[in-house]
Amino acid sequence: MPPVTVPPVRTTDYHAAGEPFRIVDLTRDPVAAVPGDTVAERCATAIGPGGSGTAPRRGPLDDVRRLLVREPRGHAGMYGGFVVPPDDDGAHFGVLFWHKDGYSTACGHGAMALGAWAVDTGRVAAPDDGDAQVRIDVPSGRVTAVVHRGGGRTTGVTFRNVPARVGARKVPVATSAGVAEVDIAYAGACYASVAARDLGLDVSREALPALVRAGREIRAALAGHPATWHPGGALLSGVYGVILHEELPDTPFGPHQRNATVFADGQVDRSPCGSGTSARLALLAQDGRLGPGEDLLHESVTGTVFTGRMLPGAVTEVTGTAYRTGEHTFLVDPYDPLGTGFAL
Length: 344
What we know:
By secondary structure, the chain is an alpha+beta fold. The protein has 5 helices and 18 strands. It has helices spanning about 40-45, 60-70, 110-120, 210-220, 275-285, and strands spanning about 10-15, 20-25, 80-85, 95-100, 105, 130-140, 140-150, 155-160, 165-175, 180-185, 190-195, 240-250, 255-265, 265-270, 295-300, 305-310, 315-320, 320-330. It has an 18-stranded mixed β-sheet that branches.
């Protein structure tokens, strides 16, 4: 076996509502080149000719992704992003989101983590008390992380997404647990929503194996469905995540739901899923369940919480927290037979 050659990779790690986000700043530590004039073009470069978001082609950049997301340096639930130049000077930076299977076009919890990181590192100036806006170019467009500050520290982050829209309602999908009616919405990526009880499930840690199986089946069944096609092209098309949700008693401020979001090839979001929350907001608003001034209290399968609301123009906001968990330099011994690692 030829030696593996991957340069040392420096990361700063955060979590947002329990979901990890590993940041690699390619603008200051260019461990691999990512040609392109826009973030969307760079994402296509990272995926490679003939590849897809969940099946990218091998290359120097993807070797770095594999190194960081696979064991023994990562795990099957790892998530992260490569910081790249923005599309223009209207944003502070761009990012390519990645996970264990490849790349995604949107990531709300990642935007929250990046907002906190940009302020914590001084890349974007922020007051001790008040808000700072961090503008980020992602493959699906420009998003904003509004970083809330108090007493000289970051107390929360609000992710303002690209406009959300409903694609289809009550699409019948056959699963091993029976036929489910699925709603499809786009919020930077395409999400399919289904009530867990329609599959005889609840949203709990104990039910995770069955929830993951259902999520995989629904995503596969919707491959090529017209409602999952985005006019922006193949990069933005296709179901990225399946949201299995259940109702909880409403709060005085609006609906209350718990969800397990299964994305890529069976990866489970530990947070309530930022862009997935945006998709849920679009569906609830169309149902008349979320009006002006009302919030969705959205829980994850781990019990962490995001709060979401609709703004004019189908724009959504999702508020949560983000905390730094570590700084690392990852290395590969060129003769290590595991190379960039393995996934279970």
